[in-house]
Specification:
single chain, alpha/beta, Undecaprenyl pyrophosphate synthetase, six-stranded parallel beta sheet, globular
């Protein structure tokens, strides 16, 4: 498997079921992510993309959003950076960072500069991400460039892919969602057109390595025809 994408859902519900503050659920989710990245480094996967914060999550209570961003920034600069150094990981960040504070954007910018050209596996963090927003911004860039060049030819698939946040990355072979819901929630809508989808009833906070190992095994058994037929 080249690329596994993960929707890390259920942290808040995990905390509520234990009569804990929502923040504790997000903290547990971040700790679990560091363990999942460590596991990813040992597994037969080249790229891991994690849905860390959607653009729609920004509609939540201001205190929860602030806690989320603080937790993300802390774990990125400590645990994740340490893992990236240890395993020579390439870190990449996708999404719209315009709503975020200058200090948060600086954290992302510093890590991007530090790890974007590493030679190992790739971990992609989708932060402030929305698939519809990504597509609109891609078309905006294409149209502005074409208007400047007076180019009115049809947009090609290749041109569109090159203007997505994920340009240069393989499409996800599989997407797994934790938390029990069976939807993608605006996550990689174009990139996922041929992805195999896995939905787990357990919360992200309850992740274990066996989850990824089973997905890899199940994926290996799937015949992928991409619209064609067998024989």
């Amino acid at each position: 498997m080249r690329h596994l994408a993960v929707i890390m859902d259920g942290n808040g519900r995990w905390a509520k079921e234990r009569d804990l503050p929502i923040r504790r659920g997000h903290e547990q989710g971040a700790r679990v992510l560091t363990r999942a990245i460590e596991d990813f480094c040992d597994l037969d996967i080249d790229v891991l993309t994690v849905y860390a914060l959607s653009v729609d999550n920004l509609k939540r209570d201001r205190e929860e959003v602030s806690d989320l961003l603080g937790i993300i920034a802390y774990y990125l600069t400590h645990d994740i950076a340490e893992l990236a150094e240890k395993h020579d990981l390439k870190l990449r960040f996708i999404g719209d960072f315009s709503p975020f504070s200058e200090s948060f954007c600086q954290v992302v910018s510093d890590l991007n500069a530090r790890f974007i050209n590493k030679g190992g596996k790739t971990v992609v963090f989708a932060i402030g991400y929305g698939g519809d927003q990504e597509i609109r911004q891609a078309f905006d860039r294409i149209m502005k460039r074409r208007a400047f060049l007076s180019d009115f030819s049809p947009v090609t698939d290749e041109e569109l892919q090159q203007n997505l946040y994920t340009a240069g990355l393989p499409a996800p072979d599989a997407i797994v969602r934790y938390g029990g819901y069976k939807r993608l929630s605006n996550f990689l809508p174009l990139q996922s057109i041929y992805s195999e989808l896995f939905f787990l009833d357990k919360y992200w906070c309850d992740y274990d390595r066996g989850d990824f190992e089973k997905i890899i095994r199940d994926f290996a058994e799937i015949k992928r025809n991409f619209g064609g037929r067998n024989g």
